[in-house]
Design a protein that fits this description.
The protein is an alpha+beta fold. It contains one helix and five strands; from the N terminus they run βββββα.
Length: 91
């Protein structure tokens, strides 16, 4: 179960997700200092994901098809791996 987190819109980033053929759009990802991420698509919350210090998803609560969830997980994992000095992951 995910712990309650405070998500910081100041450090949000966006992922381009292919929902279906000819439906590719950007979704917002709002991080917390606890490596939890709130996933928002056009104002609707799609879910929350939590990652460990090794950039592995350890918990998710999302109401999206598996192929979309995999794209989101891969995008967040890439963000974590490429953002070594980002304020979200240096605690």
């Amino acid at each position: 179960m995910l712990r309650k987190a405070v998500f910081n819109p100041r450090y949000q980033f966006h992922l381009l997700i292919n929902f279906k053929q000819k439906d590719e759009r950007s979704i917002a990802i709002l991080p917390s200092k606890d490596r939890q991420f709130l996933v928002v698509d056009q104002g609707d919350v799609l879910g929350e994901l939590e990652f460990d210090q090794h950039c592995n998803c350890i918990a998710s609560r999302c109401n999206v098809p598996k192929h979309i969830l995999n794209q989101i997980k891969n995008g967040i994992r890439s963000f974590l791996q490429e953002s070594f000095f980002h304020p979200v992951i240096s605690a």
